[in-house]
Amino acid sequence: MRRPSLRAAAATAAVSAMALTLAGCASGQAQVASGSPTDPGTIGLALPTTESARWISDGQNMVKQFQVLGYKTDLEYAQNDVQKQVGQVGAMIQHHVRALVIGSIDGTALKADLAQAKAAGIPVIAYDRLIRGSGDVDYYATFDNFKVGVLQGTALADAIGLKSATKAAPKRIELFAGSADDNNATFFFNGAMSVLKPYLDSGALVVPSGQMEFLPVTTKAWDGKVAGARMETLLAGPDAAVTLDGVLSPYDGISRAILTSLQAHGYGKGGKALPAVTGQDAELDSVKLVNTGGQSSTIYKDTRELAKVAVEMTDKLLNGEKPDINDTKTYDNGVKVVPTFLLQPVLVTKANLQTVLIGGGYYKASDLG
Ligand code: GAL
């Protein structure tokens, strides 16, 4: 039986809810009989970790939205353990999920799993992070990752007044990137460097450590502790004799750890201003810091919208329809160019935080404390 599309099912659910309210005493059974498809099946959702607030929201949003369509879900987190995620996805295939939505940890580790999924006729959607090295990934739902990096680089440049810097009076920053096994990390870094490189080339911008290539500045598993430790090492070494103006940070969890290290080294007090530190994900703890001036910016990626795209893609695929895509060029995973739907990221600073995050309903004013 062909199941309804997302919009149709949502409308049906709204109508049944209204009918129930009007009837006053209608039973749940009546609602099931009138609104839900028979045997909708289970969707396997494999996400990286609950250690970061955003992935918790991603999971909750998808579960809610799949349920509106009548699907069941199996949501698993792997706490950034690559082999654990490989096992979780394998088990989902054994349990005959109807489709897989995967936010991978190591984008290259799922090849064998996906070959099994293909053989079992289970469609696969890469969620936020590209799955690499496999021809068996059907679609990709994400944000414009290069643009995220451009926004981060631009925010940093603006915050430190880079336009007026010169070789004689340069600005000084350190660079941090995400986890090397996550395809997004390269995109973020390259996007940011597309903005910063001309200033590095002219000498108006200096990286005291000299660490400007991607690999030396990456942060295994996006782990704040790893980044905080590297910041400590830099502050005790190449950065000890200089004043830093900024730090390029790819993600809020890393930004907060960097800020803690900077504060431990005397920044943010006694007339020594905190360097401008970028971020990503608009995690509440970082949004609070942006609001009070501790973190200079973050990037807002509405996980409700990303979940909606992934859920619609899955539902369309399972109904024999073609999912909507808007990019067929950018995401070559080494085996194929994966058809993608890209959402737009938004830069958040203190200036637009209220309008974007509170006005947009992502947080409540009271969440800011
Ligand atoms: C990336 C993702 C970012 C951030 C980071 C750490 O893949 O695109 O938004 O969440 O992982 O979790």
TrEMBL record:
Domain of life: Bacteria
This protein's record includes keyword Chaperone: no
InterPro entries hit by this protein: Bact_Solute-Bind_Prot2, ChvE-like, Peripla_BP_I, SBP_2_dom
Cellular localisation: Cell envelope
Pfam families xrefs: Peripla_BP_4
Gene Ontology, cellular component aspect: outer membrane-bounded periplasmic space
Alphabetized SUPFAM superfamilies for the sequence: Periplasmic binding protein-like I
N-terminal signal peptide: 1-19
Annotated keywords: Signal, Sugar transport, Transport
Domain Periplasmic binding protein: 43-322
GO MF annotation list: carbohydrate binding
PANTHER family, sorted: D-XYLOSE-BINDING PERIPLASMIC PROTEIN (PTHR30036)
Protein name, per record: Putative multiple sugar transport system substrate-binding protein
